[in-house]
């Protein structure tokens, strides 16, 4: 397993009684080269789990191993070369351009002076073209539409050339064409380079089409995890999201999830 979690426990130390959120993952992991969709209701802890894997926050107990090494023991640069992240919310106080933002993905590879080289420029150019943002490369990132910005952040993660990409609701601002195209590009990268993809999403349908593994998180715990064909079924969707859905097997690899409008009581 490329990511392996053991007896992980985390709570936000806000000191406020109303914040009772606790995350607890006993034994869970992701295989190398997998495309896993992490699904679950609002506030169930999906983003928190990503932040723990990224070492943005520290667990109270337990460990996360990446490539067999506890992330506590990674140098910051080495972790950045291994794990790239596309955040849910993007804010920048400084008006970096699209080009500069994608180039930031190359930071872990630059020398201490922070100079880019020919390789960095070639990789960034390729990422700008792949995600169709070459024509806006001189624009400031505060001057973009939500979908353009999302593509910039995904391009930055791909330019980082990491073996794991974590995405937090990457399709939130994308139109249908770009949702399909970005999931397709990620899938292609996974095939070509055996990149591991972990994406948090609320889109059951895209998860059913593109991922091969599904994990459901409820109240800070991973309650179901497995192959899409087994985990993404009508019973699980009903129990977790309290909605009726029809899961249509389009091919062995493609499941379409049709959510029915009537909410369960
Ligand atoms: N920085 C923080 N300090 C205190 N509590 C937090 C913080 N960030 C998140 N929480 C709380 O932790 C819980 C889990 O939040 P998290 O963002 O991980 O959920 P999520 O499953 O990603 O939700 P969503 O689907 O709404 O994005 C929520 O109850 C949230 O209010």
UniProtKB/TrEMBL annotation:
InterPro entries: AAA+_ATPase, ABC_transporter-like_ATP-bd, ABC_transporter-like_CS, Metal_Ion_Import_ABC, P-loop_NTPase. One of its GO terms (molecular function) is ATP hydrolysis activity. It holds the Pfam family ABC_tran. Gene3D superfamilies: P-loop containing nucleotide triphosphate hydrolases (3.40.50.300). Residues 3-244 form the ABC transporter domain. CDD domains: ABC_Iron-Siderophores_B12_Hemin. SMART domains: AAA. The keyword Nucleotide-binding applies. Belongs to the ABC transporter superfamily. This is Iron (III) ABC transporter, ATP-binding protein (HemV-1).
